[in-house]
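Fold it.
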Amino acid sequence: MRTTEIRALFDHEMREHARPDGPGVRVERTGPLVRQVGGPNDWNGVVWSAPELDADGANAAISAQIEHYTALGHGEFEWKLYAHDRPADLGDRLRAAGFVPHPPETLLVASVRALTAATGAVELPAGVRLRRVNDAAGAELMALVHERAFGTDASRLRHQVLARLEQAPDDFAAVVALADGEPVSAARMELWPGTGFAGLWGGGTVAAWRGRGLYRALVAHRAAIAAERGYRYLQVDATGLSAPILARLGFTAISTTTPYVYRSAR
């Protein structure tokens, strides 16, 4: 995989020409930026900045985004900064404006064809079965896994999954692994018609079931769906915990991404 070429394709299709990541949200081009705007339970933030963005333009763009989202009443929004974005000190400028960086993640990409060949059929531990998330009950199971695996509130995830199932089910695929009926692992995939990429998101396994192959099985399950739908690449923003597993499966690192989060004082 040619890293530079894949990264340029990703920037073009998934950032500069980003699609809304769910119902009820919109993507806006504003000067040198592309941002997503939605409700309080949606992801709000900047997804792309023009390569020619310079220091003066960056400062003005940062101020404009703070003003825009604050005026909409959003208490928080994100600037999704990639390591190859310009200017080189954009992260410093965001921090100076009040943004707080969260832990960086590795942007990984894999060929769907190569990945499906490498992972083969999904193999599950004894007593475990996969349940497709296609109704409110499935969304609740997925939220339970999220809360137990990550120790964080799943209200926003629950809202987003239900909205997708109701309004755009063909652009979304999610699955829960059940061990003797108990939800122990879950993950979802965002499908972007008109692009070559499908995104893997939210993969999580409760502590007692880690190291038993569930994460790999859910990747293989989603890769098979992506192959059936004609996608060429799978994309993941991977934490330090999942990046090594994905690398062993054949994913290649093409950049890093850091969420810079701005929270309003009011």
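The longest strand covers residues 252-263.
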